[in-house]
Amino acid sequence: MAISAQKMKRPTGADAPGQPDEQPLDLAGDLVALLDADGIITSISPTITLLLGYPPDAIVGRSLHALVHPDDDALLRQLLHAIGQTAESSRGAHYRLRAHDGSWRWFAATATPLLQGSGRGPIVVTQRALSPRERGPQAHASARGASEHFVQFYESDDFLITSLADYVRAGLEAGDACVVIATPAHRESLEQRLLADGLDLAAARTRGAYLPRDASATLAKILRGDMPAPERFASVVSGVLARAAKGGRRIRVFGEMVALLWAEGNQTAAIHLEALWNELQATTPQPFVLFCGYAMHGFVGEAQRSAFAEVCHQHARVIPHERYTTLSTSDERLRAISLLQQKAASLEAEIASRTRTEERLRAAERAAAAQARHLEAVIEAVPDALSIHDATGRILRLNAAGQRSAGSGRGHEALDELPHVYDLRTPDGAPFSTDDQPVARALRGEVVTAMEMHAHQLADAHDTEPHIILVSAAPLRDADGQIEGVVTLTHDVTERRQLELRTREALEALLAMAETLVSVPAADPSHAVATARPEVPDLATVARRLAELTRRVLGCERVSLTTLEPESRQTRPLAVVGLAPEQEHLWWNTIPTLQPTDYLDELSAHRLLAGEPVVLTFATRPNSARPSYGAEKTLMVPMRLRGQYIGTLTAGYGVTPHEYTTEEIALAGAVAQLTALVIDRERLLRDREAARANEMALREANRRLDEFISVAGHELRTPLTSSKINVQLAERQLQRLVAATSGRARGHAATGDPNSDLARLSDLFSRVGRQMDRQQRLVDDLLDLSRIQAGKLDLSVAPCDLALIIREAIEEQRLMHPTRMLSVVLPAHREAVPLLADADRVGQVVTNYLTNALKYSPDHQPVIVCLEVDDATARVSVRDRGPGLPPEEQDAVWQRFHRVHGIQVQSGSGVGLGLGLYISRTIIERHGGAVGVDSTPGHGSSFWFTLPLTPAGT
Q1: N or C: fewer beta carbons within 10 Å in the chain?
Q2: Backbone CA torsion sign across 143, 148, 154, 157
Q3: Beta 251-255 vs 177-182: how paired, if at all?
Q4: Rounded CA gap, 35 and 643, in Å?
Q5: What is the mean pLDDT of residues 116-120?
Q6: Cβ distance 878 to 938 under 8 Å?
Q7: Helices (H), 747-801
Q8: 300 phi and psi, to 5 degrees?
Q9: Phi/psi of residue 329, nearest 5 degrees
Q10: Burial of residue 504, with CB atoms counted within 10 A of its CB: 0-12 exposed, 13-18 middle, 19 or more buried
Q11: Which alpha helices (DSSP H) does 131-214 contain, by range?
């Protein structure tokens, strides 16, 4: 061929054309094309007719991209882009060109810039047809099938972005949807590259063809702990794929979540996520191509060999990194493969040699370790703290028991600190001098046996109680008999001493419980009319105090008290101590739903109900209805009273393993019996106080009844007495009038004016009528109260006018109180206020309000009635200028029989039965309204009520 070198000689001098792209290329063999800076073919060799079947004139002026296979177009763009960046060197690639008959043919292309210098310029592309043997595998990211999962390894981010840009560009230009799940840096670089290539990413986003996602945020949504959860993965990824597949688009996905997991060292999660992608690809109704990228530096070392193989196994196609994929010829690839094979063989030989050497070292180490383990087993088997010191007293070795006693989390690295962990003192509290301590004495050759010491742990500010320890020490001598160290054995007797102390405290507590039991306060007759005794607490308070005391007696962590209701056989929770807040909440909600047979086997439940203690082991009853709260075992002791089971005392040590001794169970039984007696005592006290409270309530009710009867009798007797007097006066006046009339008839002279006598007589009868009316109202109030209490207060509901009801009530009061000032304020814009109500009952309420206002306000002060109307409600208020009501009385005045103390009647007579406002409230509420009072002491009161208006059109 005429142009076959990696660099072409450029024409110079007179032979140099004015426009290089106008010179025709007449070269045989290879297909040579001259492209301008935009990739347009300006000249092409006649061999195109032989190789592809096109006449040259049909190709000149067209873009080379129009001939390239769509899956290879990204590779061609990468090639031309690289040439534009480096104007001195040639670049090569393999791609397919479309023949005139529609078939595709492979070519090995070499692109060379035609002109020297920087910037874009004409390019010569020499394309040699490849035989099937030369084609080899297609290895770039733009190529894909209908549904494929492939991986691209890379050494530089720039190469990854180039491959990814080709992949996305090819998809968008083919009408596919591209989902990019990548880091922000990679997404930004990708989008800059795509925008530079002329792609309209904004439009692609708008139509849903370009869907970028943040890899870290997406990964966080699908992880449960350190591993991807299948259901979360399916939910998140399927949703994205469904949006991408709208309109029947094919889908291309780039996922970088696996690379993030790999970079974090979570290789197991990365492999699992690859498997989830494969499973989704096999089951999803939207087929998609998945492109994964891994940085090659994440697979360095022999330890990564199996991991690398597993990553490759998860993918249908593997694309090597740029050192191989950028090679332009098959010869260069074969050379690269040979070098890689040589390196691999050398590494394998070196690894095998190193493995044999390491195996021999490990065998020697295992032999030495076996001997060390024997000694270690002996040291660790010692239940007490064992330490070995050197000749200076420094700790060289400390067994597990010693490390536990030194403090949680301390290991061999903290041995130098141990001498400063404890403040060591004698049993009487005096500090130990350094020379008197067991190690120092053993270094002088003494053998120390069971020296008692009190050790305060300085590192833990919460540990205020000393550890009581017995320390033994003996010198260690070398072959020459010289002291080279000391071995010490420390036995902690704190628990034993605490048990002794706890036993004494338990006995004292039991005595205190017994003393409390017998100290029932006697009934005090002086409290017969007082309130309930405040010194008797509620059962919950007593039960919690008992639970705390029981925990102290038994020395356990958790205590709960429950009782069994005798009739319903239902468990009732009383108190629990020692649980976390959320556990205590669960306990209070669970216990009422359980009976002993729900969480104990039949034999154990029978024993408990019969009065025997039971140890509930949750390991043997994993399905127990009673939560374990982390405990392995729980001691359940029945509480019995007069031979009957009344409840259970439950004690436990939480998560701390504990075996209940016979003595502990017996002690718990005694405590349970005392607890049952104390609970019964508290019940008796509460019953007594309840009886006393009932007695006081009955006395108060009787007192109020007596007071009501007295007031009612007085109120009923007053108008009756007044009527009787007026009738007697009228009778006398009538007798005088008859005598005077008879005298005139016999001719005697008259002694008075008959008209005046008749007027006086009429007035007396009017007074009788008013008193009878008053008595009738009192009787009516009593009858209304009776009807209300029996639920038989009937209403005769009919259409009526509220304004007319108010006017009639006011006129009636004006006739009865002609000297009082009564005014009414009605809505100016409405002549009538329609209601659907019992007019007589509503008038009764208005009359009650007016009567109270007139009775409790001075004669010279006005009483104002106001009617206000809005769209759906009428509000009636009666305002007086009386003494007003204190705030605490404003709710009480609506109760039956209630009279406000300290407020005197200021006009008229009689204090009333205390029923008017109670009856008024009942009437208004039966009509669907409400009542109330607005009052300020010293400034009068405004009693009001509201009623719903009749809807328009009703």
Answers
A1: C
A2: positive
A3: parallel
A4: 110
A5: 56
A6: no
A7: 754-790
A8: -80, 135
A9: -125, 160
A10: exposed
A11: 132-135, 157-173, 184-196, 201-206
CA-closest candidate to residue 615, choices 631, 597, 635:
635
Closest CA to 927 of 792, 780, 798, 789: 798
- β-sheet bridge partners, residue 33: 44, 125
Q: Which residue matches tokens 């405290």?
A: 505
Tokens representing 863 are 């009483």
Kindly list the distances between the CA atom of residue 352 and the CA atoms of 135, 341, 344, in Å, as whole numbers in the listed order.
37, 16, 12
Which residues, in sequence order, are bridge partners of residue 822? 863
Handedness of CA 855, 860, 864, 865 (dihedral sign): positive
Strand duo 177-182 + 149-154: pairing: unpaired
pLDDT, tens digit, 9 for 90 and up, residues 152-177: 888 888 888 988 998 899 889 888 99
Distance between CA atoms of 813 and 170, rounded to whole angstroms?
Answer: 99
Residues 896-908: pLDDT tens digits? 777 776 677 766 5
Among the listed residues 574, 585, 577, the one whose alpha carbon sits nearest the alpha carbon of residue 552: 577
Computed on alpha carbons and rounded to an integer, the radius of gyration of the chain in Å comes to 53
What's at 864, amino acid-wise?
Answer: I
Q: Is 138 exposed, middle or buried (0-12, 13-18, 19+ CB in 10 A)?
A: middle
HSE, CB side, 13 Å, CA atoms: give it for residue 394: 8
pLDDT in tens, 813-841: 888 888 889 999 988 877 789 999 988 88
Task: Identify the bridge partners of residue 111 per DSSP, sorted by sequence position.
Answer: 91, 125
Length of the chain, please? 954
Q: Give the CA-trace dihedral at 565, 571, 576, 581, to 10 degrees.
A: -140
Decide: helix, strand or coil at residue 296.
helix
Secondary structure string (H, E, C) spanning 479-510:
CCCCEEEEEEEEEECHHHHHHHHHHHHHHHHH
Helix axes 754-790, 916-926, angle to 10 degrees: 60
Q: How far is CA 80 from CA 84, 89, 110, 160, 614, in A?
A: 6, 12, 10, 18, 87
SS3 of 106, please?
A: strand
CB atoms within 10 A of CB 766: 11
Q: If you ran DSSP here, which 8-state letter would residue 144 be given?
A: -
Measure the CA–CA gap between 501 and 494, rounded to whole angstroms: 10
Dihedral pair phi/psi, residue 321, rounded to 5°:
-75, 180
Residue 515, both tokens = 């003393």
- Smallest CA-to-CA distance from 132 within 156, 96, 163, 157 is with 96
- Closest by alpha carbon to 513, among 646, 683, 672? 672
Alpha carbons 353 and 345: distance in angstroms, whole number: 12
Structure tokens that stand for 676 in this block: 């049952």
Nearest alpha-carbon partner for 473 in 481, 459, 483, 460: 483
Q: Which residue has the tokens 């007295």?
A: 710
Query: What DSSP line would sit under 614-668, residue for residue?
Result: EEEETTT-TT-SS--TT-SEEEEEEEEETTEEEEEEEEE-TTS-----HHHHHHH
Please give the DSSP secondary-structure letter assigned to residue 40.
Answer: B
pLDDT digits (tens, 9 = 90+) for 271-294: 999 999 999 988 888 889 999 999
Confirm if 667 and 704 have CB atoms less than 8 A apart: no
Say which residues have a Cβ less than 8 Å from residue 433's Cβ, sequence separation at least 6.
none
- Rounded Cα distance, 457 and 75, in Å: 73
At 17 the pLDDT is: 38
Place of tokens 């030194």: 406
Query: Which run of H or of E encompasses 709?
Result: helix 662-746
What CA–CA distance (Å, rounded) separates 187 from 167?
Answer: 14
- What H or E segment, with its residue span, contains residue 879? strand 873-879
Find where tokens 């030495």 sit: 368
Q: Which residues, including other chains, have CB under 8 Å from residue 332's CB and lie 6 or more apart?
A: none
